[in-house]
Amino acid sequence: MKQSFTEFLNGLTSGFTPVIGGNYQHSDYVAIDLSENSRDLLKLEVASSGAFSVFVDEFLKNREAKAAFGGYNELRTLYNRSELFNNEESNRNIHIGLDIWVPALSDIISPLDGKIHSFRDNDNFGDYGPTIILEHNYEEKTFYTLYGHLSRESLNGLKAGTVVKAGDKIAELGDFHENGDYAPHLHFQVMEDMQGREGDYPGVVKKEDLSSFLRNCPDPNLLLKI
């Protein structure tokens, strides 16, 4: 039987595989719920990136953790503040990447060998901000990883095709003024097929399109194993 992309992705790593540089250990991470069912989030004024930062900092402090993660296939109301997602044509509110909440300027490292596929500053309000996409080829299988909400400086001097090794620093996280107006975090996503896109790929989708996007974008934690 042919191996599925999900099975292939899960088999690439045998244990916790960092994408945040520095001294973060597996035990430093804690899951966070930012879905519409989160009672804590409903108390928060989500239109303020500053308030959201305080919320995340307090969440980590109360759990004696250094990094929060989660959000794959999560229905969120926090995107309602942005016309990019909430408009007459569609209501995109289902998150299909994995978010990792750590401080601005944290190092972002490649979890796998690869090369730079493309990059762009997606500078709409509520968008990714500076974004890098890597291309990977393992066992004659090509796929892609996306890193969103980076610093603008991270894009300086980049060239498509530049080779990176697993563990190499590829970027730094941006702050709210350059990352789409969010509390600092990495949006990490895996795509089997870029479908002709460069420097961008949807990370929030509408319910009607969800099944096809989930097939192309499996849970990134299959790879990272946080």
Automatic annotation (TrEMBL):
Keywords: Signal. GO terms for molecular function: metalloendopeptidase activity. Residues 94-193 form the M23ase beta-sheet core domain. This is Peptidase M23. Pfam families: Peptidase_M23. It comes from Christiangramia salexigens. InterPro entries: Cell_wall_metabolism_enzyme (IPR050570), Dup_hybrid_motif (IPR011055), M23ase_b-sheet_dom (IPR016047). The keyword Signal applies. It comes from the Bacteria.
